[in-house]
Amino acid sequence: MNGLLRIENLGKTYVPGKPVFADVSFTLERGEFVCIIGHSGCGKTTVLNVLAGLDTASDGYVFMDGREISGPSLERGVVFQSHALMPWLTVRQNIAFAVVSRWPEWSRAQVNAQVEKFVAMVGLSPAIDKKPSQLSGGMKQRVGIARAFSISPKMLLLDEPFGALDALTRGTIQDELMGIVRETQQTVFMITHDVDEAILLADRILLMSNGAETDTGYKPGGIAEVVVNPLPRSRNRAGLHHLDGYYDLRNHIVDFLVSRAKAH
Amino acid sequence: MGAWRSLNFRAALLSVLILVLVLGIWYAATGSTTSATSSAGMTAEQIEYAKMMGKDPGSTKAAGFPTLGQMGTTVWGHLSDPFYDNGPNDKGIAIQLAHSLGRVALGFGLAMLVAIPMGFVIGMSPLLRKAFDPFIQVLKPISPLAWMPLALYTIKDSSISGIFVIFICSIWPMLVNTAFGVASVKREWLNVASTLEVSAMRKAFQVILPAAAPTILTGMRISMGIAWLVIVAAEMLVGGTGIGYFVWNEWNNLSLTNVIFAIVLIGVVGMLLDLAFGQLQKAVTYVE
Known about the structure:
Strand content of chain A: 15-25%
Distance between the termini of chain A: 34 Å
Oligomer: heterodimer
Mean pLDDT of chain A: 90
Radius of gyration of chain A: 19 Å
Low-confidence stretches of chain B: none
Radius of gyration of chain B: 26 Å
Strand content of chain B: under 5%
Number of strands of chain A: 12
Helix content of chain A: 25-40%
């Protein structure tokens, strides 16, 4: 199997000779949840933006279903770090905007049914006719997630979607997201800073290192290691830390972030 | 009880007091001045002489600053019959006002048709923004009335020249604000639109336009304010009809009450226009 998304030798260079990252290669299988973790500035967001088609890489290629990605597409839904809801539209209108973009031929009733289904999915039916400014940070991010799911993309790209949320809200939405992803068999690529979040959600965790000067010259950032999550897929947030192997996995990732991610 | 404490109520009360005070000063300052030249005790020859010198003792027209009573009569006269039309130099105040508002609406509307699409294009393209910037910076500070001779010469029609002057003064704030508003639409909203493969037209009308609408309306509000300032001056120059012409005409008649009435009216209409645009602005403003 070739995988749904294949990334080959991706690199991004701003200063000539000193690429931020280089030779980033990995594949995403259908239905897989992959997290990428690394320090700020290592280029995670750039990788995600390239996958989304919002940015272009200096080197390398990205293939989806065997065809090269040339720009943004409805096949790849994006949840932005800053939720990116349009403040002049209500929740309903924000999601309808996406649904109409996906299926322009749909009738108003069809669009509305789709919108209500996905708003209900993230538990926001009571707030469907509110403006984003009337919602809390967690609710806004839920709308962002509902919007990305509502267009039934082939895969989802999540750019640190819970970064700005408090710990309690974050936990609740992680649970919701996990439930929805399991149910819809969605393929997900997600950026995170949070080790526990990665362990809870991801089937595979990509550890990304920053570019750095070493004794032998400049070494660009890239994927230093791919960790396959050995914990059972039925794991949940409440029982996560009781599972065998959880602490080994967690220590391994934290050690990487502390000692290996920056200096090589 | 509650009404007394309300800030709005107290402010309104104070406003009324200030108005009464101003009118009181006016009354005190003009009420005592009786006609300086009285015909009493003058011989027929003296009266005749005074008339020849332009000091008609029987007339009250030029007897200094008008009193409150005279002012009231004038105001009542205008408001009770605003629509009469007795030929080119004697039209009701509503008709004069309608002419001015019509010119402003036309000039402003034309400016909108040019400035908003052009501002959109300039805002979208950093290249065009840089290329147009020197022209806009040079043209913007020019007093709109400075265009008048050129307009009269090329257009050869005083009424259209007036409209052109309104057009040229309204265009800059709208153009600059539209370009600024469009250029500063948040990157994330545009990213959402591109990941949803939204067409260029739909992106322009459903993302950029609503995002930039508050800034565009600020520009329109500023333009309208300037247009209403300029129309009075333009009509004084061009003549014929309009509230500006009315002021100039009444000055030539030395009818100060009419001039004062027109000044207040210009202020009130300007305020109403600004209020209307304020409401529009409120309607398109969003909270992030």
